[in-house]
Amino acid sequence: MSVLRSRYILTGRCSLNAATALAHATCAAFIAFPPKPPPTLLVMRRTL
After folding, report:
1. Relative to the CA of 20, which of 13, 35, 44, 46 has its CA 20 to 30 Å away?
2. How many Å apart are CA 14 and CA 20, to the nearest integer?
3. For residues 6-29, b (16+ Cβ closer than 10 Å) or e, as one string?
4. How many helices (H) and strands (E) does the chain have?
5. How far is residue 13's CA from residue 39's CA, in Å, rounded to a whole number?
C-alpha cells in the first residue's frame, strides 16, 4: 500500500505542477500578447 500511495502522491504532484506551469504560461501569453478586441467594438467606439 505504501508504494501505491507514494506513486499516487507523486503523480498528483506532477499533474499539479503541470497545471500550475500551464497557468503561468497562459498568463505570460496574455501579458505578452493581450487579446485584441473584436472589430465591432472598435467600430462602435469610432462611431460614438
Report:
1. 35
2. 10
3. eeeeeeeeeeeeeeeeeeeeeeee
4. 2, 0
5. 42
